[in-house]
Design goal:
Length: 238
């Protein structure tokens, strides 16, 4: 598949929903991941990312405006040893517990399916990256309805071993900004990954639709010393 410009992918789509990017920096020294959320309703837009341990969680920016927290308040990122879990919902905790119980990433998600938000039936997208002692591999998963049929759940897992320098994969919840919102289609998109965390963060944030973007998380993990740098941007600011 052709490696795409992530900037152009984001700028050409006004509402990809929530998105996960995982890959390797161009110089091969960093494992890279990013997660963003967008929103069209007041409830969805009333959020920020805050740090929690080595991960993050979503939080209401204005608690007085919070309506239904069930699908919008969760921990998108958690860390278990040398594994970083990134998802668009509370399945982060499902994966974390499954891995703790010696299940695989794919086995952990067997108990979950797409979100119960008909008629969209938003897919659950999840990623996991394992980085230690210079070695790095990752996987992405999508659980989605069968073309909008809530009686059927289609499960896809994509695994990437020995990732290529400067490349990654991008998966998001919605294929197009239509009603109802159609689920992501096909394989995760191959995209370019640079070396500089600040340039990457700025590019991602500036490429997301100004009206719909809410929050962005970016992390670069050093593959030699297993330390990391994190950037968080929230549209809602105190």
């Amino acid at each position: 598949m052709k490696v795409l410009s992530l900037e152009q992918e984001l700028k050409s789509h006004s509402y990809p929903g929530r998105g996960i990017i995982i890959g390797k920096s161009a110089d091969g020294t960093k494992a890279v991941t990013a997660y963003f959320i967008m929103g069209r309703s007041v409830n969805s837009r009333n959020r920020i990312f805050v740090t929690e341990g080595e991960g993050i969680r979503t939080e209401a920016f204005d608690p007085s405006k919070m309506e239904d927290p069930s699908l919008i308040i969760y921990a998108p990122v958690r860390v278990l040893g040398n594994q970083t879990i990134v998802t668009n919902g509370d399945q982060t905790d499902t994966i974390y517990q499954g891995l703790s119980d010696h299940l695989t990433f794919e086995q952990s998600l067997r108990s979950r399916k797409f979100e119960p938000d008909g008629p969209n039936y938003t897919p659950r997208i999840s990623g996991i990256l394992q980085a230690e002692h210079g070695q790095f591999h990752y996987a992405l998963s999508i659980l989605k309805s069968d073309n909008g049929n809530p009686e059927a759940c289609n499960r896809y897992t994509f695994t990437y071993e020995n990732p290529i320098n400067g490349q990654g994969h991008f998966i998001h919840t919605y294929a197009r900004n239509e009603e109802p919102l159609p689920s992501f289609e096909g394989e995760p998109k191959p995209v370019e990954i640079p070396n500089d965390i600040d340039a990457f963060t700025t590019m991602l944030w500036n490429s997301l639709n100004e009206e719909n973007k809410v929050s962005l998380f970016v992390r670069f993990i050093d593959l030699t010393v297993n330390t990391y740098e994190t950037r968080i941007i929230n549209k809602n600011k105190a």
